[in-house]
């Protein structure tokens, strides 16, 4: 891993580790599908402008059927269910569920589609990382039991599967489509899908539109558009192309550690020795995961 790739990977981990707070701020203030649609449609405008400036274009023979399906899974299916579910469960709980399942689903789906190989070291790293994450974030695992909380939890799980399946389906597209151009197309298709769902299922008022300019909501939207979509998602697609689904998905074991560190530095959050042990397990899991897989071929 060269220095540039390492810096991009860490930037992606940092941004997505902090995105949960921004998402929760938005969905608490307005209809969640409307907020998600605004995020991705605004991001698509910036991504298309950046792609045009850099000469990043869709190839003539692009596989549009797969592109549309992947975009709807990653952006529409994932965020419609995720943002809806986060109305009924705490952001910390949603983050633990989502982040613990992402590496597992990416690995399993990667094997199913032939982009990954099963190895004992990667299976061990997955188990180690999930255990470490659960230890680190154990204080955020509690939710008030209720039918809506259960439905919200299932929605977060469904969102994770949708995101992972769309990511794996995007992997072969990146052999011929520039990651920046694909990110722009994904955002506009996904945003349009979310806007349609919002129109059907939500009652968006003029007050909701005006609330986009409220300082907390505007700051959250700006962070999600400029950093989570414009930077982090483009980096993820690049790593998905170069590393494969499993290694790209290991950000899920780094993002929580960065978020915890920021919380300690900015708001004085305290963690126990056991929780630091969980963080250490996650770092070991990432170290094992980022090594190239050794596949033994028997003759």
Q: What does this entry look like structurally?
A:
The protein is mainly alpha-helical and 299 residues long. It has helices at residues 3-29, 32-53, 64-85, 91-112, 120-136, 147-170, 179-201, 206-211, 215-243, 245-248, 251-267, 273-289. Helix 3 runs antiparallel to helix 6, helix 5 runs antiparallel to helix 12 (273-289) and helix 7 (179-201) packs across helix 9. The longest helix has 29 residues, at 215-243. The two termini are 31 Å apart. Mean pLDDT is 85; it is low at 295-299.
Give a concise summary:
With 299 residues, the protein is an all-alpha fold.
Distance between the termini: 31 Å
Q: SSE order in H/E notation?
A: HHHHHHHHHHHH
How much of the polypeptide forms β-strand, as a percent range?
Answer: under 5%
Mean pLDDT: 85
User: What is the alpha-carbon Rg in Å?
Assistant: 19 Å
Instruction: Give the strand tally.
Output: 0
The stretches of 5 or more residues where confidence is low (pLDDT under 50) are: 295-299
Q: Structural class per helix/strand content?
A: mainly alpha
Largest sheet: none
Q: Name the overall outline.
A: globular
Approximate helicity band: over 70%
Tally of helical runs: 12
